[in-house]
Design goal:
The complex is a heterodimer.
Chain A lengths: L3 E5 L3 H13 L3 E5 L2 H10 L4 E5 L7 H9 L9 E6 L3 H10 L3 E5 L3 H11 L2
Parallel strand pairs in A: 1-2, 1-3, 3-4, 4-5
Chain B lengths: L4 H21 L7 H20 L3 H18 L7 H22 L6 H15 L27 E8 L10 H10 L2 E7 L17 E6 L5 H8 L6 E8 L5 H9 L23 H22 L12 H26 L6 H26 E3 L1 H4 L2 H12 L3 E6 L4 E3 H22 L3 H6 L6 E10 L2 E8 L6 H10 L11 H6 L22 H10 L3 E7 L3 E9 L4 E9 L2 E6 L3 E5 L6 E4 L3 E6 L2 E7 H5 L13 E7 L2 E7 L1 E9 L3 H4 L6 E6 L5 E5 L1 H22 L1
The chains are: A alpha/beta, B alpha+beta.
């Protein structure tokens, strides 16, 4: 079975781009528009990887990572965040919350796939 | 990537609206954290998206805005009126940039640069720290620049919790091996006894030997996510003979891979994080991509519409019903006998109901809340009040009222014009208002509502009202009316819709060049609507716009002239009456008129202006007079007979044939024949022309 990835972003175009790229590479992709939605999905159907934007309404990416990491099913799951530029502060905040790593925006599909392959082969 | 552009533009424009509204709601000095967060998020999304989709100029411009917003959000910078205004202006520039990008063109770079400088000025203001973008560490020189290492020795000791970050030591080791590792040694000295072991902790460390001269960055990239979750050292292996000199150099940039006496390397110190370099690489990649997409794009912006899923569901539902009805009728038809007639009738009425419901649902899809148009007004009024030095509050109601998409697109400009007029000419300066005993702040109330099959949009201000005498004076001066005409107030206000009519004492750059009200009326007439004005001196002005609910379907009254059927829009009909010969009167200069209560209305003999030879009614008592109103004028259309009222689907004459004065379109009747739809203002114009030429004939023969 293909690895499943949960893509979380409040921006529809980014979400579609991420989703389209990953689906094209054969992954099974679920989309969520914010942290609350993502958390609900993650609880009902376990995924192999979560890629989340940081700035989102309702629940931001950092809180989502924190919540997910506290779930037994997500103790070791790679959780990646999408950040802009090299905002070291956000990365540290993310790491402290339990993020595995980050993908720096802007990125192109190849970079995305390469990074994903790094955490789920 | 191009397939995501449309979505990106749509959401970016929505984001701009969010930013604009948020900024307008922001009171200087007082910050609602959620409000500013929403603005920040919108900017952030636009920046991220534009960077990803290759619009780098938009991305870098938004970055400056985002930096400013970020500082405001964190409370590091006070929210000043100045900063808000600069941000608002930046939203405009950003909108232009996005529009240009969408159309495949170039933005006005000068304006962009100017606005960017304005942003930089605010950012450089005394408060607020330096932006994070400027605090990037100075780029470190590459170690061992003189001698390239031939390989690397890597020591990697994960901290106990590393696995719980979702990172996997195995993957890291594998990635390092992929770079060209030849030997991996595992150090198990830290492994506790089985009883003491925490299964989720990491106890192993590794030493890897890379025998290939890969760049240091490639190794750093692998450790990028875990640099705080492990100890690692990357020690260059120098070619024979150069080792001593190079080792000394390596120490300089801060990486000090020294061994301590215990035999375990002390691995704390690590190079400055490599983000900076990665960032640059990515920017280069993005540049290349921008170049590629710039060539690829260029297709015109497809017009799309966002539809509530519920509307689509109801459509599908309806189609389902329709299919069921159709199959029922089909079965009936297969072996039809007369005793099944009642079931056939029932089926047909069901079909009719479903078709109507389906039609209504499809129409619903074109309906959008008028807030799409209204949303620009808070900004407009904000800017106007600043420019004019007036205090104006904009109230809006009925933003949720749904109107046809075409109306949304076309009503914007006329409304802008009207609101501008209200702000400029209607609302007085604060001093004047106080002197007149009114509150200092003037109010413009913009409202929309459904009223009897129409959309009614109202612009109501509590300003000084229309100067009736001044308008009349000017109307007389322009020769539009005569002094002795004895006009009602309403008829006088009507004058301002005449071309080139402006009473503004001082032409301002906001409004008052005398181009406008006639265009406003024409635009609204084109939408099948009407505009009315009411005013009271010193109390304010109300402008009422009436628009049909939808533009594709019209409630019509069928009339007969000879063997032809025409459709008169029901909205323009006041009443239909039979006129006796005795009620007719010839009025000099106005032709044939008839008396309706206390008014004399001109009669338009339709068969004459359309040249219909087989019209049955020639004498006035034989036919019917349909009293219609358009643009504040009334007249009686003389026709043979009234047929039924029905909804008709409007087909464009221009698209299928050509424009014909007096007709607004055509429709297909139940029996398949074509009926033409009358354009009442056009018919009135036609009648006036015919009459003038008649008068000329009379003048010549006399």
């Amino acid at each position: 079975m293909a690895a499943s990835i949960l893509a979380v972003d409040d921006s529809a175009s980014m979400r579609q781009m991420v989703s389209f790229t990953l689906k094209g590479a054969g992954y099974d992709v679920v989309e969520a528009a914010d942290g609350v939605e993502a958390l609900n999905i993650a609880k009902t159907r376990p995924v192999n990887l979560v890629i989340t934007d940081v700035n989102m309404p309702n629940m931001d990416g950092i809180s989502l990572i924190k919540e997910l990491r506290n779930l037994p099913a997500y103790k070791f799951t790679p959780l990646l965040m999408l950040t802009t530029e090299s905002s070291a502060e956000k990365k540290q905040e993310g790491k402290a919350a339990g993020a595995t790593g980050w993908i720096v925006k802007p990125f192109n599909p190849e970079q995305l796939l390469k990074t994903v392959a790094k955490v789920i082969g | 990537m191009a397939q995501f552009h449309q979505v990106f533009f749509e959401e970016s424009f929505e984001g701009l609206d969010v930013m604009e509204n948020g900024l307008l709601n922001m009171d200087p000095g007082e910050v609602d954290p959620e409000e500013i967060n929403a603005i920040f998020r919108a900017a952030h999304s636009i920046k991220g998206g534009s960077g990803t989709f290759g619009f780098d100029n938009i991305s870098s411009f938004t970055h400056v805005m985002e930096t400013l917003l970020d500082e405001m959000r964190d409370g590091r910078r006070p929210v000043t009126a100045d900063a808000v205004n600069v941000l608002l202006a930046s939203v405009d520039v950003l909108r232009e940039m996005l529009t240009a990008a969408q159309e495949g063109g170039e933005p006005d770079q000068e304006r962009v640069d100017e606005q960017r400088q304005a942003l930089d000025r605010v950012l450089a203001g005394e408060s607020g720290n330096a932006s994070p973008a400027e605090t990037v560490a100075p780029e470190a020189d590459q170690p061992a620049a003189s001698v390239e290492p031939v390989g690397w020795r890597i020591v990697f000791r994960p901290h106990a919790h590393l696995l719980r970050t979702g990172n996997d030591t195995l993957r890291i080791v594998r990635e390092l091996a992929d770079l060209g590792g030849t030997r991996v040694d595992c150090d198990i000295s830290d492994l506790p006894t089985f009883a003491e072991m925490e299964p989720e902790d990491s106890y192993l460390s590794w030493q890897l030997h890379l025998d290939t001269p890969v760049a240091r960055e490639e190794i750093d990239e692998i450790f990028e996510w875990v640099e705080d979750d492990c100890d690692f050292a990357v020690i260059p292996v120098m070619p024979e003979g150069a080792a001593d000199g190079a080792a000394a150099e390596v120490a300089t940039p801060g990486a000090e891979p020294a061994n301590d006496s215990s035999g375990k390397p002390d691995l704390k110190a690590v190079d400055p994080p490599p983000e900076r370099r990665c960032g640059e690489d990515r920017r280069k990649v993005a540049d290349r991509r921008a170049g590629a997409t710039a060539k690829a794009k260029g297709g015109g912006g497809a017009s799309s519409i966002r539809v509530d899923t519920a509307k689509i569901d109801s459509l599908i539902n309806m189609v389902g019903e329709l299919v069921i009805t159709q199959s029922m009728l089909g079965m009936l038809g297969e072996d039809f006998t007369l005793d099944k007639l009642s079931r056939l009738r029932e089926g047909l009425s069901q079909l009719e109901r479903h078709t109507r419901e389906l039609q209504e649902s499809v129409m619903q899809i074109r309906m959008l809340p008028i807030s799409f148009t209204f949303s620009r007004f808070p900004r407009l009024v904000h800017d106007l009040s600043q420019k004019l030095g007036k205090k104006i509050e904009l109230k809006m109601s009925g933003e949720g009222t749904e109107v046809d998409k075409t109306v949304i697109e076309k009503i914007g400009d006329p409304l802008v014009h009207l609101v501008r007029n209200s702000a400029d000419h209607g609302i007085e300066s604060p001093e004047e208002r106080v002197a007149a005993g009114k509150p200092e702040t003037g109010t413009i109330h913009l409202s929309a509502e459904h009223r009897g099959g129409n959309i009614v949009i109202e612009i109501r201000d509590d300003g000084k009202g229309l100067a009736r005498d001044k308008i009349l004076e000017k109307g007389i001066a322009r020769g539009l009316v005569k002094e002795e005409d004895n006009l009602t107030d309403k008829q006088i206000y009507e004058l301002i819709f005449q071309p080139g009519f402006s009473t503004a004492e001082q032409v301002s750059d906001v409004s008052g060049r005398g181009v406008g009200m006639d265009v406003v009326r024409r635009n609204i007439n084109e939408l099948g609507g009407a505009i009315e004005i009411d005013s009271e001196l010193g109390q304010g002005t109300v402008i009422t716009i009436r628009l049909p609910l939808t533009l594709a379907i019209l409630d019509g009254q069928s009339i007969r002239i000879g063997s032809e059927t025409y459709i008169v829009p029901l909205v323009s009909i006041i009443e239909s009456i039979q006129v006796q010969e005795s009620m007719l009167r010839q009025v000099a200069g106005r032709g044939e008129t008839f008396r309706l209560r206390d008014e004399y209305l001109p009669i338009v003999r339709m068969h004459e202006i359309f040249g219909i030879a087989d019209a049955s009614a020639r004498r006035i008592a034989d036919g019917i007079v349909v009293v219609v109103e358009a643009g504040g004028h009334k007249c009686g259309l003389f026709v043979d007979d009234l047929l039924g009222q029905q909804q008709v689907v409007i087909k464009s004459l221009e698209a299928n044939y050509g424009r014909v004065e007096g007709l607004s379109g055509a429709t297909i009747l139940g029996d398949g024949s074509v009926a033409l739809i009358l354009d009442i203002p056009g018919v009135m114009r036609l009648a006036r022309q015919t009459k003038t030429s008649d008068d000329n004939v009379v003048a010549l023969t006399a």
